[in-house]
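Objective 1b: paired records.
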Amino acid sequence: MEKSRAQRILWLLEELKVDYELKTYKRVNMLAPPEFKKIHPLGKSPLLSIQAEGAAEPLVLAESGVITEYLVDHFGPSLAPKRWQEGKENQVQGETEEWLRYRYFMHYAEGTLMPYLVTALLFKALKAKSPFFIRPIANVIAGNVDTLYLNPNLANNFTFLESQVKSAPNGGGYLCGSKLTGADILMSFPLSAAKGRSGFTEESYPALWAYVGRLEEMEGYKRAVQKIIDVEGSYDPSL
């Protein structure tokens, strides 16, 4: 769906080099159109439909994290780190640091970071679209939310991510180590959307900024963006 977070699923499909068909839908009053809800009742994007040979009905997956985990499990195990330390297979605390980071960031992207960014978007819209006679009140409310809630929490998260990039194992480069994983792909959208806003600047978070730049320069990322441009005419990663 246009103006959604689906680009990273396209990027994942490009990295996996699997054949796929891209279908796009236009929003109606910023919401999913009726035909989109026929695929999934919540009308959320992205959705992935998989038709396996011999299956009577396609499998429809929603939620970016679920889609990413399913695709990596079945088509791209190299995009997930090794799970177990040598000699500690299936033991409690036997997981590698790389795998624990991978599992954590698969949930962190939508569970922690995105809610703050979406809230920032909503209050930005509140200030811009309130009727003029109540706009001063809306600006005060939104400003207090920014000052007391959003700004400190976003700064805390960006500081945390800066440290995670710097401390990534095996020489780093990515959040989970020296190789791209599905978690990096999932994290790409919120971080690209936050660049230059919400306090996320190169001066304040140089390692995190450079990391996002590396993701945006990857060939699979650029192919996914180009496919969106070919369909929609432009690509804007902002929320």
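Objective 1b, second protein:
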Amino acid sequence: MARTRAQGRQITTGHPAMHKSSSNIAGKKRSRDEVDDDNTNKQSRGASKSDTKKAKALDESMKRTVNKLLTNYGSLPLSDLGLPNPSSANPENVLALVLNAMLTSARISHELAFKSVRCLIEAGYQDIKTLTRSTWEERTD
């Protein structure tokens, strides 16, 4: 029969193995779930202030990076395709960016890919509802 390392140590030394998960409080063994819950609670209480500071610093860092890119390159991707608000992270913009990424990574010129994305957006295919209502034939025409 196979033995764990702890069982092997207990046989060779004669002492029971101590585990981190079996903390004794007033002679009562706690389950691993109870110990994990205590550790999670300690982490969430102590880390909330530092997490918010880190999140704010990261947010400011991202804003600086975006502003730097905009000043260097002048516009957001797909900003000249007629999307209502190209800087927001809504599903339509994300799908338009995915379509753009798929077409520009294909073995066609970027000019042709850009024209194709423009046609798809004009047809409304950056909207999930429009895509689900359309047929394959409509999409390929």
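The first strand starts at residue 24 and ends at 25. The radius of gyration is 29 Å.
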